[in-house]
């Protein structure tokens, strides 16, 4: 095994750990919703609004970061973003009501969004395009680990202590990763040199057809997902009458299945392309939410259904992340990822907020209106295969157009893998 391979694996592992903390900070709030709703006197239907505070703030941070993130060493910028996330997560544990919790979650979004953008930029800079699907699949596996270990453990810790303790423990883990980013990641300033020789203006983030199509795909994919994701825990417990322990088991089983299959999805993207793999994930996502929320057969164990939900969501995300990593040049990658993060959070916030407005509380704490929420999510999902196809075709056309000049000994272009193509 070469030192290069070991170095790539070490980077993927560390970035995966950063993403684990970042993702768990976001996703554990939703299954903990019934706990802090009871503890702070918050209506269950407002859990989606609390999730929207994070995503809306992440949207603002993404817009701001699109103007300056590429001006810094990626390692140092990631450490600063993670430190801000650590402080914000701890602040969530000190919340005393809806307002203070909303403020803490908004702060977390302001730092969590750039942390994600920088993490994916580091992977795209260091991992060549022919192996990037596998790397993205491994990093996206952080979501599975968060589901398999993080969410059930957060629920267990909340049961043993109270809902505040998971926030404090996660902040402590994040602090360790700040040190890891500083001491173990290599300095990453290559994009600064590229920017001096291959100038791409910020205006291209908003005018190029491939970039705009990528943004559209990002917004639609996240809006479709977050129409239903914030309400899974409340629906399972209140509408389906399942005990809290069942929620823990569901997240464990779903995350375990997706952890195994996401690596396979990454390899499939490298071999078959994002359009084909992403379309399979979208179709599976639509079928799963249709059965779960609208036509759940009597006696069908949720433990058999939820793994398909996690699998579908993960396959969509691996295909989408790998494809969008190929859109920008290295010199604007963090800015592109940052603004894409803004669009991602805007889509997620719109989905969470819209679904919260469409839902209403029924007697006994049940959620009403899920049939309309699922219908909107399916309609949005129907547009995604078209978006995958358009972005992939535009990226391939650009790569083909650049090939003749390289073969003729023309100027060396900035490759999607972060290295000169030859």
Task: Describe the protein's architecture and organization.
- The protein is mainly alpha-helical and 422 residues long.
- It has a single domain (3-186, 202-399), classed as MFS general substrate transporter like domains (Growth Hormone, Chain: A, Up-down Bundle).
- Helix content is 77%, strand content 1%.
- It has 17 helices and two strands.
- It has a two-stranded antiparallel ribbon with strand order 1-2.
- Strand 1 and strand 2 (367-368) form a beta hairpin.
- Helix 1 packs antiparallel against helix 5 (98-126), helix 4 runs antiparallel to helix 7 and helix 13 (274-293) runs antiparallel to helix 16.
Q: Structural class, from helix and strand content?
A: mainly alpha
Under CATH, the topology is which? Growth Hormone, Chain: A
CATH superfamily: MFS general substrate transporter like domains
Quick one: biggest sheet?
2 strands, antiparallel
| Envelope shape | globular
Mean pLDDT: 79
Please write the CATH class name: Mainly Alpha
The number of E-state strands comes to: 2
Helix fraction by DSSP (H/I, runs of at least 4) = over 70%
What is the correct CATH architecture? Up-down Bundle
**Helical segment tally?**
17
Oligomer: single chain
Order of helices and strands: HHHHHHHHHHHHHHHEEHH
Head-to-tail CA distance between termini: 25 Å
How many domains comprise the coordinates?
1
Using the CA coordinates, give the radius of gyration. 21 Å
Residue stretches low in confidence (pLDDT < 50, at least 5 long) are 1-6, 406-422
Strand order of the largest sheet: 1-2
Our estimate of the beta-strand percent is: under 5%
């Amino acid at each position: 095994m070469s030192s290069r391979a070991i170095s790539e694996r070490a980077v993927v592992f560390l970035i995966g750990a950063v993403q684990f903390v970042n993702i768990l900070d976001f996703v554990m709030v939703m299954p903990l919703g019934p706990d802090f709703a009871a503890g702070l006197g918050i209506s269950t239907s407002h859990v989606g609004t609390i999730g929207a505070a994070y995503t809306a703030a992440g949207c603002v941070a993404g817009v701001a970061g699109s103007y300056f993130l590429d001006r810094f060493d990626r390692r140092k910028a990631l450490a600063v973003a993670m430190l801000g996330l650590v402080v914000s997560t701890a602040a969530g544990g000190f919340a005393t009501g809806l307002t203070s919790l909303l403020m803490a979650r908004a702060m977390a979004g302001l730092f969590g969004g750039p942390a994600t953008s920088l993490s994916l930029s580091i992977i795209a800079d260091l991992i060549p395009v022919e192996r990037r699907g596998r790397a993205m699949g491994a990093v996206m596996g952080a979501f599975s680990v968060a589901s398999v270990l993080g969410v059930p453990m957060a629920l267990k810790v909340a049961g043993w202590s109270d809902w505040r303790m998971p926030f404090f423990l996660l902040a402590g883990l994040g602090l360790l990763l700040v040190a890891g980013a500083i001491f173990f990641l290599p300095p990453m300033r290559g994009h600064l040199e590229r920017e001096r020789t291959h100038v791409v203006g910020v205006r291209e983030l908003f005018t190029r057809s491939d970039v705009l199509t990528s943004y559209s795909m990002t917004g639609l994919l996240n809006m479709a997902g977050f129409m239903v994701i914030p309400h899974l825990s409340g629906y399972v417990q209140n509408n389906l009458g399942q005990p809290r322990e069942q929620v823990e088991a569901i997240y464990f089983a779903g995350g375990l299945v997706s952890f195994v299959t996401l690596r396979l999805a990454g390899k499939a993207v490298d071999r078959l392309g994002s359009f084909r793999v992403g379309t399979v994930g979208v179709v599976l996502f639509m079928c799963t939410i249709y059965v779960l929320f609208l036509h759940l057969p009597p006696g069908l164990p949720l433990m058999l259904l939820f793994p398909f939900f996690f699998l579908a969501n993960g396959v969509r995300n691996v295909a989408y992340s790998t494809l969008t990593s190929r859109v920008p040049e290295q010199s604007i990658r963090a800015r592109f990822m940052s603004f894409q993060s803004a669009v991602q959070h805007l889509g997620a916030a719109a989905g969470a907020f819209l679904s919260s407005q469409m839902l209403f509380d029924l007697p006994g704490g049940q959620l009403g209106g899920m049939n309309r929420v699922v219908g909107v999510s399916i309609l949005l999902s129907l547009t995604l295969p078209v978006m995958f196809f358009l972005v992939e075709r535009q990226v391939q056309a650009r790569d083909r157009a650049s090939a003749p000049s390289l073969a003729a000994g023309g100027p060396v272009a900035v490759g999607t893998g972060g290295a000169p193509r030859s």
